[in-house]
Amino acid sequence: MLGLRIGVGALAVVLLTMGCAGEHVPEAAEPIVESSTTEASPTVSTATPSARTKLGDAPSRSAVPSSSPSVPPASKPTAAESSPAAAKPTPETQAPPPPPEPGPTGCPPRHEGTPASRTQMRSALANAAAKTYWPTSAPDIRIPSALVKATAWQESGWQSTIVACDGGIGLMQVMPATADWMNQRFGQNYDVRDYRDNAYLGANYLAWLTKYIGDLYFDGDYRLDATLCSAELDSCLLNAVIASYNYGHAAVASGESPITIPNPRYVGNVRALMTECVCLAY
Predict the structure, then answer these.
(1) How far apart are the C-alpha atoms of 219 and 91, rounded to whole Å?
(2) DSSP the chain
(3) pTM of the prediction?
(4) pLDDT tens-digit map of 33-67
(5) What pairs with residue 174 in β-bridges?
(6) Angle, to 10 degrees, between the axis of helix 118-130 and the axis of helix 145-156?
(7) CB proximity list for 105: less than 8 A, separation 6 or greater
(8) Angle of helix 195-217 versus helix 145-156 axis, rounded to 10
(9) Which of 130, 147, 274 is nearest to 209 (CA)?
């Protein structure tokens, strides 16, 4: 999603079986600062296109969340316990639009434009992961390259020209409304139909989710580290960010109740792809 969607995962799941296992007054709108390794310029989407749903890699909107007991948010220190020097991070209250409803059943995705080569897509995704998205308030946020590549594979099977029936576009299946919001929020002008910009938009959304959920539930600890995850899906920031990319942040981390993972299969797929995907060798 980026206010995203449930992507074009049917294709990703097919490919998976073949070789991969498948709101705010913001802090001053900070422009995204690219790292020295980025190329010039750049769903996510969380709604599910029919092409994905028919293979069942993502739940319907009526899906019941995982039965695993939820882990309550970490307790917040009282004013007496807080150190004057340890200022709390300012949470994001300006949020992207909600994901759309899934596309029509049986509607196949279409392709528009000229496809990028595997090498071009690999470079775009790696560059997007290398950027610093919150240079002032959270410069330590880093989006793992394996997470960006695995999300792109799950969402589109690394197809730069694919357009889902619900509107998700390109490598990261970014929704047009989400792209517009991201451009406005961060003062950019990324083109969702350009594969490089699409990769940046998707990774930027992952970074936004990392800050949003990290501030609300993890006291500003932004580590997307699988070793911090227990058997409970709601135990770590990494799982919450993956779930939100697919299902929308509001369904996962409202800030008013414990983290909920409504799409455990999707989270499991992406987690597996982060270590097993054939795309990691591209």
Answers:
(1) 10
(2) --S--BTTHHHHHHHIIIII------SS-PPPBPPTTPPS------B--HHHHTTTSS--TTPPPPSSPPPPPPPPPPTTTS-TTSPPP------PPPPPPPPPTTPPPEE-SPPPPHHHHHHHHHHHHHSBS-TTT-TT----HHHHHHHHHHHHSS-TTEE-TT--BTTTTB-HHHHHHHHHHHT----TTSHHHHHHHHHHHHHHHHHHHHHHHSTT-----GGG--SSGGGSHHHHHHHHHHH-HHHH--SSS----S-HHHHHHHHHHHHH-GGGG-
(3) 0.72
(4) 333 333 333 333 333 333 333 333 443 333 333 33
(5) 169
(6) 130
(7) 50, 53, 54
(8) 120
(9) 147
Residue 169 tokens read as 């576009």
Answer whether 96's CB lies under 8 Å from 161's CB.
no
Q: Is the dihedral of CA 224, 228, 232, 237 positive or negative?
A: negative
Place of tokens 């270590």: 275
Q: What is the pLDDT of residues 149-193, one digit of tens each?
A: 999 999 999 999 999 999 999 999 999 999 999 999 999 999 999
Dihedral (Cα; 85, 205, 233, 56), 10-degree rounding: 170
102 within 8 A of 6, measured Cβ to Cβ? yes
Does residue 277 contact residue 147 with C-beta atoms inside 8 Å? Answer: no
Nearest CA to 155 out of 178, 137, 138, 134 is that of 178
